[in-house]
Design brief:
Strand content: under 5%
Oligomer: single chain
Order of helices and strands: HHHHEHEHHHHHHHHHHHHHH
Shape: globular
Number of strands: 2
Distance between the termini: 34 Å
Strand order of the largest sheet: 1-2
Length: 440
């Protein structure tokens, strides 16, 4: 019976992944339907209006963003057209990078302006680049600058949507979610990453996924795992390994708080949240691995898989010797990119977040109230640190783009405080049919 159920679950996952591959490929094909000439005109106008610059990393420029390099790569993939539309849908192409030549954004401007010598296009098989579909639709309808404004507004709105849905379920759940939303708005890098076509869509999808899991009524762990896997797959369709830990960690925290608010059972809530974490993680991993397999089936497995695994080997830092905690130190040095201001502004925010953990520990120690909320923040911190350390090279190369995730473990300290304060004023929990509720 157990084996039969396992086989059925595995079959569901395979069916889900097969459907995801078809849907993602079809979504990528939408780019081909948008006239290239229109997109080229829009991009050229973006340079003229100041919505695009020729510097790959222009620094802190609100409404443009700090990572113009990735945006220019995304725009290159958007306007590129391969001989076969299916090839365009399966794998994006961008202008070959020349370390000694002009920057990526400058070469993009030369391409849309019809200037400069032709540059070879190379395939980028490793990622789905779902952002290029969103980019093409936004640029075609709103222009480069208008699209940036729309993405920025949507980034803030997605956070507020999760908070509104949480308050709609219950005032207590809304209060527990409030620190997560506030830290995301203040310390989530939205001023510098919110306007970017290469970063904003995955942030928005992540918060929408968390809000969706607050809306669904059935929280059976088996079905939740399947839903979380689907949401993780959608997230991975947009991500390029820069926001990867955010989605499963946010979904896990929100599911745990929702279940504990409804039942008061810490162990059952942890089990359900664990199912969400496993499901979202499995969906992300499977989607990332399916991309080179799909590209290999069309373009040839030799070069595609070789490039994928060689880059993975580099990203985890397996070929380098370094101080073990160097990636975390790099993230710490660039935490100010997660805020509205420069430099020392990160200190009061980090201090405020750590103060939440201090208060939560004191409350637990003196009153022995819901200490499990502290474990939620600790688990989130450990998993995020494990990602930074596991993807050592990737983290050290892009610390300014990956430091935004620190807002979540900082916020969960204050969530732990609010959970414990609620426990002080809550009536004793009635015993469940399968035993008493867990005190810790």
């Amino acid at each position: 019976m157990l084996v039969e159920r396992g086989l059925k679950t595995f079959a569901r996952y395979l069916s889900l992944l097969a459907l995801a591959v078809l849907v993602f490929t079809a979504c990528n094909a939408v780019v081909v339907l948008v006239p290239r000439e229109l997109l080229v005109r829009r991009v050229l106008a973006g340079y003229e209006e100041g919505a695009l610059g020729t510097e790959d990393y222009p620094g802190r420029r609100v409404w443009i963003g700090i990572d113009q390099f990735s945006d220019c790569v995304m725009l290159q993939t958007m306007i590129d057209r391969q001989p076969a539309w299916l090839a365009t849908a399966i794998s994006a192409r961008y202008l070959r990078f020349d370390p000694g030549g002009p920057g990526t954004c400058l070469r993009l401007r030369d391409e849309v302006a019809g200037q400069g010598a032709p540059v070879e296009h190379v395939h980028y098989h490793r990622y789905w680049f779902g952002n290029r579909t969103v980019t093409a639709l936004l640029v075609a309808t709103l222009g480069v600058g208008g699209g940036r404004i729309a993405l920025t507004i949507a980034g803030y709105a997605s956070v507020l949507l999760l908070l509104a849905v949480a308050f709609r379920r219950s005032r207590r759940l809304g209060l527990w979610t409030l620190p997560i939303a506030l830290f995301a708005l203040v310390f989530g890098g939205l001023p510098h990453l919110g306007p970017l076509y290469s970063h904003a869509p995955q942030w928005i999808v992540c918060w929408l996924a968390a809000a969706l899991l607050l809306v669904v009524k059935d929280m059976d762990p088996h079905r939740l795992r399947l839903r979380a896997a689907l949401l993780g797959a959608v997230f991975a369709y947009f991500d390029v390994l820069l926001s990867t830990p955010l989605c499963p960690l946010l979904v896990t925290a929100v599911v745990y708080l929702r279940c504990f608010d409804a039942s008061g059972d810490a162990r059952a809530s942890a089990k359900t949240a664990g199912a969400a974490l496993v499901g979202a993680g499995a969906g992300i991993v499977a989607t990332v691995l399916l991309k080179p397999l799909l590209s290999g089936a069309y373009f040839g497995f030799g070069g595609v898989l070789g490039d994928f695994f060689s880059q993975l080997f580099v990203r985890v830092g397996a070929s380098e010797r370094r101080w073990f905690f160097a990636p975390i130190a790099a993230v710490w040095r660039t935490l100010d990119y997660a805020t509205f201001a420069d430099g020392a502004f990160k200190w009061p925010i980090v201090g405020f977040g750590l103060a939440g953990y201090g208060i939560a520990i004191v409350l637990w120690w003196r009153r022995r109230t819901q200490g499990h909320a502290l474990l939620l923040g600790l688990a989130c911190t450990v998993l995020l640190a494990a990602w930074y350390l596991g993807m050592a090279n990737h983290t050290e190369n892009h610390p300014d783009l990956m430091s935004r995730h620190v807002f979540l473990p900082l916020a969960l300290g204050w969530t732990a405080v609010l959970v414990q304060v609620a426990a002080m004023h809550r009536k004793p929990l009635r015993a469940r049919a399968d035993g008493p509720a867990a005190p810790f």
